[in-house]
Specification:
186 residues, 7 helices, mainly alpha, rod-shaped
Length: 186
């Protein structure tokens, strides 16, 4: 063939630098800014790999890593942002502790005075958390938990038994509050 360069042992190896750069971006994808760079370099590297025969696997690994990083960021970033809501923080800090104290009181069969005191404290702290919240879903769910605790408090003060239906609704409302306050469950 005319113009063909004969293969010799001294010929420099054809490299696929975009594939190597893409791999670095894919590994560093947790920095978020490297995710698009990894994807772009991965595609460029794949195009070069079609010509050179080198770097194809690296490019596919990078594309997979970048997409995984993007998925993780897409899940975590909104949850982390919501978790910084002042109402969520107040609920996690003091209101949840007060609520758990009420649950412990009920479980161990605490007296009416102790239960009344702890229920009143839990209602007040959950109301404060709802007031502090800037997220509508969190505010609604915390108000629902507070309303359920107020029903239990009224029954305890009246000396009436708390019905199973009230407790089930309170558990349901608490689950919704946990979901609304963006607790990360990995």
């Amino acid at each position: 063939m005319a113009g063909a360069v004969p293969a010799t042992g001294n010929q420099p190896a054809i490299r696929n630098r975009p594939a190597t750069a893409a791999l670095a971006c894919g590994i560093l994808g947790g920095a978020l800014i490297t995710i698009p760079a990894g994807l772009v370099l991965g595609v460029i590297g794949l195009r070069r790999a079609a010509r050179t025969g080198r770097g194809r696997v690296r490019c596919w690994v990078v594309i997979a890593l970048s997409l995984a990083w993007a998925g993780a960021a897409g899940y975590l970033v909104p949850h982390l942002a919501a978790a910084t809501d002042p109402g969520c923080m107040a609920y996690k800090d003091s209101a949840l502790t007060a609520y758990n104290r009420v649950v412990a009181d009920v479980s161990r069969g605490a007296g009416r005075d102790v239960l009344t005191t702890d229920l009143t404290s839990a209602v007040r702290q959950i109301d404060d958390a709802a007031t502090d919240s800037r997220d509508a879903a969190t505010t609604r769910s915390l108000h629902a938990v507070s309303a359920g605790l107020r029903t239990v408090l009224a029954d305890v003060r009246a000396g009436a038994a708390v019905t199973r239906q009230v407790l089930l609704k309170l558990n349901h409302d608490t689950d919704r509050a946990d979901a609304a306050r963006a607790t990360l469950r990995v």
